[in-house]
Design goal:
This protein is of the alpha/beta class. It has two domains: 128 residues, Leucine Dehydrogenase, chain A, domain 1 (Rossmann fold); 153 residues, Rossmann fold, CATH 3.40.50.720. β1, α1 and β2 form a beta-alpha-beta unit. α1 runs antiparallel to α10. The longest helix is centred in the C-terminal third of the chain and has 16 residues. The radius of gyration is 19 Å and the shape is globular. About 2% of the residues have low confidence.
Amino acid sequence: MSWRLGVVGYPIEHSISPAIHQAALDRLGIDGRYERWSVAPGALAAWAAGLRAPDLLGANVTIPHKEALLPLLDALDPSARQVGAVNTVLKQDGRLVGANTDAAGFALALGDAGYAPASGEAVMLGAGGAARAVGHALLAAGVRRLAIFNRDAARGQALASALRQQAPQRGGQGARADDRSRPLIEAFALDAPDLDARLARCELLVNTTSVGMRPGERLLRPDQVPGGALVVDIIYRPAETPLLADARARGARTQNGLPMLVYQAAIAFERWTGRKPPLDVMFAAARQALA
C-alpha cells in the first residue's frame, strides 16, 4: 500500500513540512506521499473523520487547529495531555491518537542554541497551541521564572494557570503548592506596563505567535528587544523576522523556527513509521525549500 501523510492548517501554503517529510520517506525507501491540507475551522470535524481512511498513516497539525482538534480524536497520549495541544495524529489499533512533538522539538532546538536556564527570566509572547508546547518545554528544562504576554490577557492567564498545575516542584513531595519550590509563572496583557522591565532583564525571549510572517509585522518596538538575551522566533519563513532582525541589530543571539520544525518533524516521523529519521536529510530539505 502507498501511504498518505500530511499537514493540516489554515492557511497552509507556506508550510515546508512536505519537503522535509518527503525527503525522509524517499531516503528510507518508504512508499508514501506527504501532502498539504488546507482546512478552514468550520470543516475540521469532517476532515478529522477522513483520517480513518486505511491508507492514511498519520498527520501533522498546525495553526489554527492544535487545540480545536483535541475533542475530535479518540485519545491523547501523555505528550498531548501535558501540553494541552496536538501537533501530530497517530493511528493506533484503529484509533486516532493525538500527540505533541513540539515541546520535545523546541527543547532540542534550544540545546542547539546552547541555552541552559540560569537565574534570569524567560519571556514568552503568545498563548496559543504553540505557546503551550514551548512553555511546557521551558519548565521541563528548568526555567524558574516565566512571564507570558498575550494580546488577550484572559487567554494568557488560562495558559499560566495550566502551566502552574504541571510545573515541576523542586522541593520534594512535602513541598506546598504555593511555595517557592515551584517556578513563578505570570501572565500579562501585551500592553501591560510590566513588559519593558521584564524584557530588559530576561535571558530568553520567545515569540510563539504568527506575527512576523509578513514584512514589517512587530509585536515589540526595536528598542524593547533585549540585546543580552537569546531571542527565538518559532517562525521559519521568513528566516529572519523583524523581531530577529531587531535582536541581531542589538547584539542578541538569535534562532528562528527551523530547528524546532525539523526536530518535531523527526520525532513525528519516527512515531509514524518506526524508523530512525534521517536528520541530515531532513535539515537539508528544509533549507533547500526555504532557499
